[in-house]
Amino acid sequence: MRYRLGVDVGGTFTDILLIDQESGQTYRAKTPSTPHDQSIGVLAGVEKACAVAGVSPGEIGEILHGTTVATNAILEGKGARVGLVTTAGFRQVLQIARSFVPGGLAGWIIWPKPEPLAALEDTVEAVERVAADGSVVTPLDEDDLRAKLRTLRGVEALAVSLINSFAFDGHERRIAELAAEELPGVPVSISSQVLPELREYERTVTTVANAYVQPRVATYLDNLGFDLYVLRSDGGLASRANAKAAPVNMLLSGPAGGVAGATWVAEQAGFADFLTFDMGGTSTDVALVQDARPRVGRETKVGDLTVRSASVDVRTVGAGGGSIAHVPELTRALRVGPQSAGAEPGPAAYGKGGTDPTVTDANVVLGFLPSRLAGGEIVLDRERSREAVSQVAEAMGLPVEAAAQGIVDIVNENMFGALRLVSVQQGFDPREFALVAFGGAGPLHANALGRLTGSWPVIIPPSPGVLCAYGDATTCLRDEAARTSIKRFSQLTDDELWQMLAELAERAAATLEAEGVGRADQAVTYQVDVRYHGQGFEIPIDLALDTGLEALGKAFDAEHERLFSFLLSNEHEIVSARASVSGPRPDVQPVRLAQGGPTAEPVDKHEIWIDGGWAEASIYDRGTLLAGNRIDGPAIVTEMDSTTLVLPGHVAEVHESGSLLIRPLEA
Which of 193, 213, 233 is the last residue of a domain? Predict the structure, then answer.
């Protein structure tokens, strides 16, 4: 069908982007999120976008959805009651967990571990044992297990994680069959399907997390009603059925959509290396993209929970438009976030009962935000914002404008710290990257973040407030298959390595083929986890089709030296291998702006507080800008879903793809 729709649910707003695949024209809708039931906000947004475009929902061919339902279930502790089956002797695997001390110099702090997602009283032991080579040491005692499963009646989901099941999954599959008989209607997650890899604790906690969020995700997806695909944490898409079966792969679904959208936009503007900066109402997500490929990590972190699941390497800080500023009585030092006013009641400027000073209120006081947002649906109350920020001003003995500037400066520094985590801490110089800024609040702070990082140009995409939804709508189906096989290079040949990878690729390809993606339209990438023999950790290394063991070893050495600045003489060793299969990207035609001259006509003038005093800024309507237009700061560019601030001494140039490229005048 002609139309493709992207949906992204944030903490404050639900973003909808309807794309006409033939013309590339987009239709946007932004509705308040409904935290008690996200499907309400999604369905309202879909109806609104269709009304704007003048089409019926039945004309939409595909709906692509980035969701935070699984993430919120973890953060809010509102998942299912999970039962767990382990091998006899491993009942306390979640309680023992991994050693962790928060903070490099905080070893003296008493840190209570978070409660496991599966309680000890809901954990039973199966009499069975499998060796590391996959041989059965002790057969499964089915009669004993049936009796134990009956004691778990009342659980809402079941996880099965047996020792060495990555090498032999027969016992786990049989337990799933027994559970279907003894616990009818209870969804079962088995570790040999969720994460068929080495390390007992990581495999168990990932499987339990999958079971914990599974009922809530299934209910949510069923409530939406229409056919859809859900964004995975690694930036690919999964069918509704696969999303319901493996929701642990969707824990970072929302942020991954932003990175996918930023990659699409940066490519249109001619940039392959860039940092992404997604500032919404509640939090800010940042990532690094190199050679137009987002960095994908093997771990996903949500709150205190870390699971083994492929995800775009996104770092999140509690800094958004709704972040609350406060001055603690003890230190009298201004703090911003991580607490947020969220969607309800929201910043004071929204007039919905909020009284706490937020970043949005500070921007209103400084004059950076116009009086109307979201196409006029949200009217900002400047006086309420001044009253809220006055709380900070009085506590610090400052003028209201100075307090507002302090709030903005601090939140910028918080976000700068996050950008350093994905660049400097990973061995990358941010000055060698562009900066793609999006989200409802991102373009307002983007110029300042470019100045802090030295990342130029700062790219402001078209429709930055709904770019995550655009990313959902412009990515492709993906599936992954993995296997643990611990072998030193001397025990392996190039042919044996590629035979294993080919088998994994076949498994993943079959999944996409079942979704209607033919083999000719599939693309395969390979990755192997490598370490020095004797090491306790490994590094994932991407492989090209012609890569042999010798080249693989050299690639590992180079990455090891980049990360740790030293090499070892130990023999190389493979730990795990995986193959990822992707379908074709959708044929969405990009919009090309008509060419214009260097001069753009402002629609108004406006006073803003900048660099310690009031200055006149020109206001531009982004919908009237043409390719080649130049906007000198200070200036404000307004559009339906976001506002861009161009600082003094900087210029924004309109690219033909619709993006604004902001650079210092001297650059």
Answer: 213
